Queue: 2 jobs
Job 1
Amino acid sequence: MSTGRPIIFLAFANEKQDNARYLRGLAQEQRGIRKALQSAHLMQAAEIVERSNCTLADIVDVFQDPIYQGRIAVFHYGGHAESYSLLLEDENEHQQTVHSEGFVCFLANQTSLKFVFLNGCSTGLQAQELKEAGIPHVIATSQAINDDIAKRFAIRLYKGLAGYATLEKAFEDA
C-alpha cells in the first residue's frame, strides 16, 4: 500500500449512441470540478485522478493501481444512473449497466474511501447501500435531476471543499 496525499477520483461516463440522452453539461462538470480542486492540488492537500468515458474496468484499474491503492478518499461519478445501477461505457463505447450489488461491495472494500458522490439520476438507493456498507459520507439523488443543476451543484460542492469547508457546509452552500 502506498502512502502519500489522499486521492480524489473523478469518473465520468456519457451516452454516445442516443443523442437525446447525451449529457451536454458533463464535460463542463468535469472541467468545473477540476478547476475548483486546482487549489487543493497545488497546495498538495490532495491528488486528482480523472477518467472520462469510463468503463467498469477503468474504475477498477484505478482502485487497484499500486500507485493509488489505499489512497483514494473520494470517488465522484458523473453520468447516467438508475436506482440500482450506474450506466458506464463498454470497450465499444456503448452503454454498460453496472449493477449496484457488486459495485457497492467493491467500493465498501476500499478501506481508504471516505466520501462517494454519485451525481446521476435516482442514486439514493445506492447511497443507502453504501452507507450501510460502511462508507461514511455519500451524496446521491432521490429522483431524476436536470443535467445543468447536477453540474452546478457538483462544481459548487467541490469549490467549498477546496476552500476547506466541511462536507456538511459545502453541501449546504451548494
Note: The first strand starts at residue 7 and ends at 12.
Job 2
Amino acid sequence: MDVYYTGQFVLPLPEGHRFPMAKYHMLRDRLVAEYAGIELKTAMPASDGMLALAHTPEYIRELTSGSILACAMREIGFPWSEAMVARARLSVGATIGACRSALKNGLAANIAGGTHHSYAHKGSGFCVFNDSAVAARLMQAEWGRDRLNLHTPLKVAVIDLDVHQGNGTASIFQDDNSVFTLSIHGARNFPFHKETSDLDVELADDCEDDAYLHALDQALDELEHRFKPGLIIYLAGADPHEGDRLGRLKLSFDGLEARDRRVFDWAWQRRIPLAFSMAGGYGSDIHETVQVQMNTYSVALAYAKRWKSTKVI
C-alpha cells in the first residue's frame, strides 16, 4: 500500500506550541519498522494551479508571499514562515498522490493531511490549505481529461471522522453536487460556528463506542442512498479517542479500530477506491495518538491485500 509522506520535514514551531508535530515522524518510523506492506512515497508539493482548484488566488498569493495579515495567521495557529508554506504544499501533494494511487490500486494513504478547517479564502485551526478539497477537484479534472469518451464524471465522497466538523470542506463544496461531504463530530467542539455539510452527525460530549458506531452505520446507510461515489477521501482522525485532550468524546482503541473497519469495509464491498489521511490527534500522551493511527494502518493493510488480490481496477 502506497503511503505518502513529506520526507523528514518538520515544521519549526515555538517551544511549547500545542500542535503535536512530532506525531508525524513517530508514525512514519513505526510504520517502516512494523509493517512490511507499506511502500513509503515522497510527496510532491502542490502547485499554485492545483491549489487554485479549491482556494482563491488572493489567499494563495498572500500566504505564499508572506503578506498575509497577522490576524489571519493567528486564526491558522502557526507562525508564518517559508517552511510553513512549503510543508502545507507538501501535505496537499501527499493527498493528491494518495488519491492517484487509490484510483489505480484501491487504497492509499497520506501520513498527514486532513486539513479540513481551511476555507477557499482563508486557513484556520492548524489548517493552511485544504488537501481533501484540492485533491478531490484535481482527481475530477484528471478523470475527465483521461477519459474523454466517457460522460460520467468522477464523484467524490469525503468521509470526515475527525472529532471536529470539516467546516472548510463543507463550505468549499456547498454548491457542488459532484462531492458529498459527510462529517461526524462533537456537537460542542471546535469550530463553534458550523457550516452545513451534505450530512452532519453531531455527537454529545462523552459519546462512547456503541453510540458512535451506531451513528456511523446510519450515516453510511444514508450516504449510500443519496450518493454513488467513484472515490472516497477518508479523514481518520485520532481525536475521538478517550485520551485526546481536545476531543471531548470517549472512544476506546477498539472502538476506533471498529470505526476504521466499517469505513474500509463499506468502500471495499462497493469496490470504491479510498484514500485516507490522518487528520487530528492531540492525545495527552502522544504515543496513544500514534497508536490509534497505527491501528488504522493495520486495518487498511488488510483491505489493501484484498484489493491487490482482485486486480479489478
Note: The two ends are 15 Å apart (CA to CA).
